Amino acid sequence: MADTMSGPLDRDIKGGLEKSDAEYSEDDRKTKLGSLKKKAISASNKFRNSLTKRGRRHSRVMSIAIEDNLNAEELQAVDAFRQALILDELLPSKHDDHHMMLRFLRARKFDIEKAKQMWSDMLSWRKEFGADTIMEDFEFKEIDEVLKHYPQGYHGIDKEGRPVYIERLGEIDANKLIQVTTLDRYMKYHVQEFEKTFNVKFPACSIAAKKHIDQSTTILDVQGVGLKQFTKTARELIGRISKIDGDNYPETLNRMFIINGGPGFRLLWSTVKQFIDPKTAQKIHFLGNKYQSKLLEAIDASELPEIFGGTCTCADKGGCMRSDKGPWNDPDILKMVHNGEAKCHRKTFSGIHEKGISEDDQPCIKKNISFSKEVTVDAADYGHPKNHVEHAILSPVPESPLSKRCSSDQDYENSIPMVKRTIDTAWPTPLNNRDGLSKGT
């Protein structure tokens, strides 16, 4: 009986299995394919969401809000300048930063045409000098010998969170300096350290202070400085540093304190000041020999070297001038810097957000969506996670026939950012040359 009953059932099953795909209706195939596609999408979404949740948990721990103190007039000026740069294809994505643009505007007294020329010259110089890759490409093996003849370095932060840069000008020996290096190599080192400051030190200070930092405070110890130190080599070194800094890194000095300035230095100052930008000269404070109280008004004692009236000795680091003390040495802050946590989110008058410039250094502009007669949305390359930073837009960006095709928002939503390489958390040359007397910014 069992065999008799199972026969038809077996035949039905076998017959069903032996049916070819062609025997199924088109609707059946679509239904099956749709089901499989839904399952695949669901599995993919679950995987991606699991990564996103883990990333969000991590970002809640590490993320920090950076205060942006630009006022309405500055925002409007930056927006106009940005649109001018985009129209002339002068805005690579790596430099699409409103604070950087504001520094160039300030350097040219908010004259957009002059600021645009300065910006264009800066881009040409960076390409010719190799500034974009100098952090990786250049190795300054003679750093220890150089620092013996040019004592310099960052040490701590001031009360506003800015890094403090120190030079002991009276101990510089330019003639011995060029015996252990060349002026060309020293200039590469100088630029490399400036790049490290903008890529690591300023962002680290911004995170620590919870506000945007892109300027430093300088202490210039000129004890013993006189005309004999101002040799032809010294003049050439100061002139070259001043030009590079003034032309390409403007408005990065907040204030400078000159201490221990005697009669010899005052005679020298009349010669030196011709190498200094007039705007920089206005930021300089002569404190003479009784400077300790003034420095402590600006810098906490724990952040100020003992030799200048503070309490810090950095005994375990070989002394304050060699320690490179600062928030940029905090591993947690460095992780945040490398994750882009120091970025400000620039707001708009209209509350509309915009997206970044394309990574291939060309403006990538989608169709403008009008919200008013004066304000439109510029939706540039949204497909690159690196460029997904909310900025402000205050005026329209006309479409260009040279604009390239952008990735869709859906492409971005379905993408999973991947880290392609690691970044060192400590620099091989800890001391930096920045914002010294020769600086023209």
Task: Walk me through what this model shows.
- Helix content is 45%, strand content 9%.
- The protein has 441 residues and is α/β, with parallel strands linked by helices.
- The chain has a domain at 138-338: CRAL-TRIO lipid binding domain (Phosphatidylinositol Transfer Protein Sec14p, 3-Layer(aba) Sandwich), CATH 3.40.525.10.
- Strands 1-2-3-4-5 form a five-stranded mixed beta sheet.
- Helix 3 crosses helix 4 and helix 4 packs across helix 5 (112-129).
- The radius of gyration is 29 Å and the shape is globular.
Strand order of the biggest β-sheet: 1-2-3-4-5
Q: Biggest sheet: strands, sense, closure?
A: 5 strands, mixed
- What is the count of DSSP helices, taking H or I runs of 4+ residues? 16
Number of separate strands:
9
CATH architectural type of the domain at 138-338: 3-Layer(aba) Sandwich
Computed Rg: 29 Å
